[in-house]
Amino acid sequence: MKRVLIVEDERDLLDSLQEFFEDEGFAVQTANNGAEALSLLDAEELPQVVLLDLTMPVLDGNELYARMRSEPRLAGIPVIVSTSDPSRAPSGVLIMKKPVNLNSLLGAVQSHCQSG
Amino acid sequence: MLENMARARAGSKEHEHEARDACQHRVHFYQDDSILEALSSFVAEGLDAGERVLVVATEQRLDKLHAALESRGIARENAARRGLLCLEARALLKTFMVGRLPDSERFFASVEKLIAVPEPRPLRVYGEMVDILCADGHPAAALLLEELWTELQKRHPFTLLCAYDLARFEGEPELLRETCEAHTHLEGLPDPHTTVADSGIFAEPGAAELSALATEIARRKAIEWALRRALRDARNSEDAAQSAARQLELVTDALPVLVSYVDREHCYRFVNQNYQRWFGIARPAVLGRHARDVLGQAAYEQLLPYFEVALAGSNANFRSKIEYAGAGPRDIEASYIPHFGEDGRVHGFVALVADISDRRRLEEAREVVARRAERLLRITGAIADAVTPEQVVEAVVDQVASALQASSAALWLLDGDRVARLVRAVGYRDDALKGYDRTPLETLQGFPALDCIRLGAPVWLSSQRDLLARYPHLAPSITVGRNYRISCLPIVVDGSTLGAVGFTFEQASPVDEEERNFLQLVARYTGQALERLRLLELERQMRTSAEAAAARLEVLSAASRAFSEHAAADVPHLLDVVARQLSEGFADGCAVFLVSDDARTLELGGIRHRDPELFEVLHRALGDTPMRVGEGLSGRVVSTGEPVLMSRVDQSLLERFAPGSRHAWMRAVAAGSVIVVPLPVRGKVIGTLAVVRGSDSPAFEAADLRLVTELGERAAVAIETSRLYRENRVGRARAELLYDMAEAVIAAEDLETVLSASLDAIGRALDASRAAILTFDPEGVMRFRSSRGLSEVYRRAVEGHSPWPRDARNPEAIQVPDVVSEPSLSAFGELFREEGIRSLAFIPLVAGDRLIGKFMVYYGAPRTLSEVELALARGIANHVASALVRFSTLEELQKTVRFNEMFTGILGHDLRNPLGAILTAAQVAQNRDTEERLSKPLARILSSGARMAKMIDQLLDFTRVRVGSGMPLRPTMLQIGGVLRQVIDELETGYPTARVEIEVIGDDDRGSWDGDRLSQVFSNLVANAIQHGEPQHGVRVRLGLTSNEAVRIDVHNQGVIAEELIGRIFEPLTGSQQKRDRSQGLGLGLYISSEIVKAHRGRIDVSSSPAHGTSFSVHLPRAALEGTA
User: Fold this and answer.
1) Predicted complex: ipTM over 0.90
2) Which of B198-212, B379-393, B507-521, B647-661 has the lowest mean pLDDT?
3) A49 has a chain B CB within 8 A of its CB
4) Of B920, B956, B968, which is closest to A99 when you measure between CB atoms?
5) Terminus-to-terminus CA distance in chain A, angstroms?
6) What CATH number does domain B2-204 carry, 3.90.25.10, 3.40.50.300, 3.40.50.970, 1.20.1740.10?
């Protein structure tokens, strides 16, 4: 099963995304902030794609991305950034502007899973 | 025989002739004209030998001689040139013959000069004078002449040739013999053995007889020669003696003295002609007479002693006046010289007596002149030495009178009013000159001296009668019968008469020329002396005047120097300097007064006096009660602005000048003279300067007034300069203060620093140790922001109080010089007392023209701030107010920024997140909606949500741009054609009926842009074109890729934008007012599009017209800047 990690502090949004991806047959992990995401990424089984919100409390998206990049076992995980302000996103990463079109998002995630 | 005799004679004559070869004394006996040949040969030989030749012959002989010389080739002129001199024999003879004999003296006198010529050439002489003498029957004379020639030859060597006609010796053998013996060489004699024998002339006896005869002849010859010589000598002596005697007579007669020889018996043995002239006795009659008979008894007795001296063997030289009988009394100068004989005894004496009577008279006259000259010298010396006119007059009157033995003398001088004033008189009775001491020149009845002055000429009156004849009106005042003469001389200088001097001589002889000259000379010297003294006096006055002027100048320059040295001093010190300057050297005392600020009184500024006691007096008199302007001398000077000079302090004058004033001080310092001058500054009198001199000092003059006036002007300038300097210094200090404060305020980073600096400034500027700054709070209550020196109690008590209403416009500062006397503050009286506040001032803080607060200053004593201080306070207040405004504005700005940040944050995150959640949930629902029952409502949710998301995005962008954060970009390399197509595809989905055509020109559509942002732009432009364009015409989109630097996108639709909108089309919120119905946005789309394009360094243009429709053109450089615009 394809695994995806969704990091988003907006609860409703997070739930909708989880439902959507589960509907599409993904195994979905969720985190409310970057710190939670990191602890999930400690697990042995890693997601195939990380869907990342930028503005989050505790540890924001940019910081999480930086840590993932600095850890060899996490550095290869594709990341898709979902943000209302693309200018704040780190470079070299796929950005989807909020409000995100779910079909587009699905397409992007699927392609990363296939290539991952 | 004769020749032998001649030779013997020649030999015997050798000792006489001294073996001179040149001194031949030749004789030539001739018969008829044979002499001519001998003579011409004699002459020619001489001339040829280069000798001089003298020929003394008869006229006929001379003619014949010249003819003979001519025949020899010697012309007459040539002969003369060569040295031939011819003289007529008889004429020459006459020059020395005396009677029948030649006089030796005369001979030598006549002939020697012909011989003794200074010529180196030898001389030869031919003479036939001896022959003439013989011919005339004077053979002895001839022989004598021969002797004289011989004598002459001894003196001067020359060759002499005599010539005799032989016929003269017929029957005279003795004579012939003697003649031969007189010569050294014989010529022309016939042979005695033949011719003479035949003629019987020279019959020769027998040899023995001849020898005896020759011996006898020789003996007799010798005797005869001796006798002849003796006779000649005797005759010569006699002649000489006679000649000497005659010469003696001649010489002594020529002498202008008596010359005589007196023997031992006092008889005259020789007298010169003068005796006849003196005594009327013929010379011969005097000889042998006794001196008594000649001189007269009286004279003889006078001269006897001198006779005896001379006869005693001593020279007697004497002068005496002798009473001669016949000659009369004479002054003589005599010398008696004793004559010593060969026996040593005095045989007599030679008397030389000169009549020196004339000389004595001359001497006496010279003595008189010398005495007079000496007197004149003494008098002129006295006149020259005189240093005052009085001394001159005394010298003239007294000394001249004494020198001339005048009985009286007097001198008058003409004064400026043409009055003759008697300046000196000696020898007069006390009352004699009464009435003559001051006489106007025009007086009708004058007197000699007056006339003298009027006429400018001397008046000589030889007697009393003369005086009365000319001045009959003087009769009553003179003693008739006195014998005197009067001489009056004018004293004239440069043609003008200064006066006259008159002398009276009693019993005197008439004035002589010499005395006249003397008197006139004295008068002239007097005039010159008086003139000299006048000029000296003038010079002295000028020098004094110049010195005084120089002294004044020195005072002026010293004072000016002092003023400028002390220019930086404060006014009181400067005034003291002024007073001191003038009281040292120029005046005895000085005071300076300054007009008070209210221009009503005069206050004593500086005062000095040489005398410390008088200084005290003055200080008290003037310092106690200030004078009022207009009162007293100084007050009057201030009112009128005119200086006052009183060269003699006069109470009545003072009264006139300043009536009613006390002037006690002038009496106190015994003021002799006073000067008071104004101190003028720019046309205003700021005070006065008064100087005083005591009554024993020289009085002030007009020149002093000028000096003090000048000093007053300079002092006024100095005082004013000092004041201005002080003001300037104070002004500078204040300006520095304001500057410091401004600096502090500008540099301050917070308001507290500003307030603290302001309080410092206020304290320094206004000399206030207590101050406070208050502002209105938002409720409009005046609250303390910062304070110094005020208690908490006080602050709480007065907070909220404001002397101005809240909305006051341009309020003025308010001073309370004394809180005690301010009724409106009476409520705070207790508070002020406790706080120790006696006066205060409110200075408004105004921004624009609105009151925003106030600052306060507090003083413990009554105090009025000056205009300058108030101006300073206002300056400070301005700074404080502007600082307050600045900081409050800053605060507002900061608030705005925080608000914007907050807004951005809200928009950016807090709004969008729930929206995202809604839209995502709707998408999920749509995905799960298998029945399609909910698809439309879900579609509407999604569409509205998308619109809302877009609006939020636009607002966010708008806010960012407005706040100045800029439009964020993330450029990447992309192909713009793809972006454009995608946008068009999306829009066609949203607007199914819309027709959008795309035209691409060129191939290369690559560049570095922010794709999302450009999508935004294209979406906005095409959507606008679809919405606003005429549907039947559709939308045309052209992509221009031909340029390497930039790409161009044109979006065209048919339809027109209203003209009034075109200019503002890219401004925010423009469209929203216009087309609310079809527009689905906030009116920010074009604004944000243009900002995006600008951020890409591009530009967007619009053109719209009914004919061509509307076109939006976007120019984009292929390389956009990374980051924000």
Assistant:
1) no
2) B198-212
3) no
4) B920
5) 13
6) 3.40.50.300
